[in-house]
């Protein structure tokens, strides 16, 4: 998540203080991602250094120092909002790496590991669903975050189910010769190096 651009977006609405930016960030994101006020001020210093925000010069550094977005900052925000994130290469996902490693370890019950993670993910989905039922209608930001998390967790559960099935089928078939797949994935997906 880019705090830099979230702060630019909040400042695009008008001048704000650092503490106000932290509070508004947390409120807009459904209070799911707490933000350290130190991180806010560090990010604001970098934005100011880069000419994307300006501060009240006469104010003392700290909670009473106001910031506003510059024309360059508004332009950078607009570009960021319209630029799709680079999703061509798969992200480093700890669960995927864990399963890939477990497959090659002798004596490891990969199916058991998959089922253990699947159970945990289903419990998380139940927690998010309860949160949605209890508070989702009250806060649009929270409802959107909960929906995103439920879809993400559902996709991970479906991947685990697919991986489990693929591993069971592979156990019945003779192993195919290994070949490096990473380069093929990057080439097919058009990933940048």
From TrEMBL:
InterPro entries from the UniProt entry: Tscrpt_reg_PadR_C (IPR018309), Tscrpt_reg_PadR_N (IPR005149), WH-like_DNA-bd_sf (IPR036388), WH_DNA-bd_sf (IPR036390)
All residue ranges annotated as the Transcription regulator PadR C-terminal domain in the record: 92-167
Gene3D superfamilies from the UniProt entry: Winged helix-like DNA-binding domain superfamily/Winged helix DNA-binding domain
Region of interest: Disordered: 172-193
Highest taxon of source: Bacteria
Domain Transcription regulator PadR N-terminal: 7-78
Protein name (Swiss-Prot/TrEMBL): PadR family transcriptional regulator
Taxonomic placement: Bacteria, Bacillati, Actinomycetota, Actinomycetes, Micromonosporales
């Amino acid at each position: 998540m880019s705090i830099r651009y979230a702060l630019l977006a909040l400042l695009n609405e008008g001048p704000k203080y650092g503490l106000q930016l932290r509070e508004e960030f947390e409120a807009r994101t459904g209070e799911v991602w707490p933000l350290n006020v130190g991180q806010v001020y560090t990010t604001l210093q970098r934005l100011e250094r880069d000419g994307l925000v300006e501060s009240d010069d006469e104010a003392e550094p700290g909670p009473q120092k106001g910031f506003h977005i510059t024309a360059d900052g508004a332009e950078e925000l607009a570009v960021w909002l319209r630029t799709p994130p680079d999703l061509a290469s798969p992200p480093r996902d700890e669960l995927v790496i864990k399963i890939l490693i477990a497959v090659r370890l002798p004596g490891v019950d990969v199916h058991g590991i998959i089922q253990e993670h699947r159970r945990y993910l289903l419990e998380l989905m139940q927690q998010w669903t309860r949160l949605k039922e209890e508070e989702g209608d009250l806060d649009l930001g929270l409802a959107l975050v909960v929906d995103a998390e439920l879809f993400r967790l559902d996709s991970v559960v479906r991947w685990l189910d697919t991986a489990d099935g693929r591993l069971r089928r592979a156990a019945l078939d003779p192993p195919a010769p290994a070949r490096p797949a990473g380069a093929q994935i990057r080439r097919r997906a058009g990933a940048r190096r």
